[in-house]
Write a structure and sequence with these properties.
The chain has 270 residues and is an alpha/beta fold. It has 8 helices and 10 strands. A hairpin with a 2-residue loop joins strand 9 and strand 10. The protein starts with 20 loop residues before the first strand and ends in a 5-residue tail after the last helix.
């Protein structure tokens, strides 16, 4: 495949084109600085993720993985190209409209949690709903349900500094999953978790996509990328390869395929 091209795979035996993409990245380029200090973080990236699809993004440090997520979620602006979420061009939105779309339609899981220290787990999770006008009691009920999904019901009233790193990360994941989130963006969501908890978190993310959300997962672990319908490999800001999970493939075979593709694409070295 020619660097910079992205040929959508056919996840789970379906034709990807048969479903409208929840998010579409169209010929994205992101440049930081200028002249001698110019850094081209992304170059001509095109990628679509449909409802019900989970796409993993792999690549070495500095390949542009986190930049891709920031652009897909409207946290950053491309130097060139377009980001379309549920048919809406993000560049056409005002700051207030963009903030509302991010709050109601996009769930983020950051590497560093980004929890508010003065709020409990339940309050952190319910905050996006309350900001959108939902009554506190209703927001709390949904927050408790989201915390239950990640196994943290009993910690609902604890503050972040009273929880372990893994518990804080699961709280952040619950916040990303609450409400009508059609797009879930996860940047190394298992980085602070043990293997058992990581598997549980990926199972939740996979289930949310199976229920109709679109997901983009940045990871350097082939065993976690194996949960995805397809894996995109970045190097030097370009898509250099893409592999789809075979229909009916077991986890062991899926992991082996991602491993082999990662080495072949030169996308290792995180």
């Amino acid at each position: 495949m020619t660097p910079g091209e992205s040929t959508p795979a056919e996840p789970s035996g379906e034709t990807a084109g048969a479903r409208e993409p929840v998010v579409a990245l169209r010929d994205l380029t992101r440049v930081h600085g200028s002249g001698e200090t110019e850094v081209r973080a992304l170059i001509g990236i095109s990628l679509e993720v449909a409802s019900g699809e989970l796409v993993a993004v792999m690549g070495p440090s500095g390949s542009g993985k986190s930049t891709l997520l920031s652009l897909a979620g409207g946290l950053d602006t491309p130097t060139a190209g377009n980001v379309v979420v549920e048919g809406v061009h993000l560049s056409s939105l005002s700051k207030r409209q963009l903030a509302r779309l991010r709050r109601t339609s996009i769930g983020y899981v950051f590497q560093d949690f980004n929890l508010i220290p003065a709020l409990t787990a339940a309050e952190n999770v319910s905050l996006p709903l309350e900001l959108d006008g939902l009554a506190v009691r209703k927001a709390r009920r949904q927050a408790l349900a989201a915390l239950d999904e990640v196994g943290l019901t009993e910690l609902a009233d604890r503050f972040p500094d009273e929880m372990s790193g893994g518990q804080r990360q699961r709280t952040a994941i619950a916040r990303a999953l609450i409400g009508r989130r059609r797009l879930v963006l996860a940047d190394e969501p298992t980085g602070a978790l043990d293997s058992q908890t990581s598997e549980a978190v990926l199972t939740v993310l996979r289930a949310r996509c199976d229920a109709g959300a679109a997901g983009i997962l940045v990871t350097h672990e082939p065993r976690y990328a194996a949960y995805a319908d397809r894996t995109v490999f970045l190097r030097d800001g370009r898509i250099v390869d893409e592999t789809a999970r075979s229909v009916g493939a077991g986890r062991t075979n899926a992991i082996a395929n991602v491993n082999a593709a990662s080495v072949g694409a030169g996308a290792t070295g995180e």
